Each structure stands twice: as C-alpha cells, then as structure tokens.
Amino acid sequence: MYLCLHKLMGLFRCCSALYASAFIVRSVAGSDVISCSSATSGDHVVRSDVHNVWCVVVAVLMYYFSVAGAIWWTVLTISWYLAAARKVKHTHPHTHTH
Q1: Distance, C-alpha 44 to centroid of its chain
Q2: How many whole angstroms separate alpha carbon 38 and alpha carbon 76?
Q3: I need a labelling partner for 4 at 20 to 30 A (CA). Which of 12, 60, 72, 87 fits?
Q4: pTM of the complete model
Q5: What is the DSSP string of 23-80?
Q6: Which of helix, strand or coil describes residue 89?
Q7: Within 10 A of 58 (CB to CB), how many other CB atoms are there?
Q8: How far apart are CA 96 and CA 67, in angstroms?
C-alpha cells in the first residue's frame, strides 16, 4: 500500500505542476497575449468564436488539470484512510500460494 500511495501522490503532483504551468505561461507571455477578450471591447463574456490559441491552451490546462488534481486528491485521501485507519493490506493478485 505504501508504494500505491506514492504513485497517487506523484500523479497529484504532476497535475498540480501542469495546473501551475498555465499560470506561469500566462505571467511570462503577458495577459494581453493570453487574454480571451480584447481590453478595448470591455466584454467579459467569452464567446465560442475565440481566435486566440493561447487563450484556449491556458483555459484547457487550468480546467483539465484542476479537475484531474481534485480527483487524484480524493483518491489519495480515500487510499490513505483505508491504509491508515482501516489497516487494509495491499494484496498482490499475482502471488499464488500452493
């Protein structure tokens, strides 16, 4: 079970790092380049006809990896609870005793 928890923590860290990369890309490139709407229009509603590729990339990175990170965090906490509080042992399906 110890190895399984480390794999789950690694997946959660990867999702968090990719989620943070969206913010890094946005701060390095500047909000004018990444923006989904022009600053002159004053429109804060993003429509489906977005022509800025960077806007879509950052939005997908932020949405997908925030949801994936939340799911991995939930799986990690459930696994930790089962390992610590319930003392569930990790079974190996490939080991056979004859």
Answers
A1: 25
A2: 41
A3: 60
A4: 0.66
A5: HHHHHHH-HHHH-SS-TTT---PPPS----HHHHHHHHHHHHHHHHHHHHHHHHHHHH
A6: coil
A7: 20
A8: 38
* C-alpha triplet 18, 75, 10: angle, nearest 5°: 40
CA distances from 43 to 15, 51, 54, 55, 78 (A): 31, 15, 18, 15, 43
**17 token code pair:** 């790092």
Site of tokens 């790092």: 17
For 14-53, write each residue's pLDDT tens digit: 999 999 998 888 888 887 777 776 655 555 555 566 677 8
Task: Take residue 43 and report the two structure tokens written for it.
Answer: 């429109």
* Residue 81 DSSP class: H
Across the range 55-63, mean pLDDT stands at 85
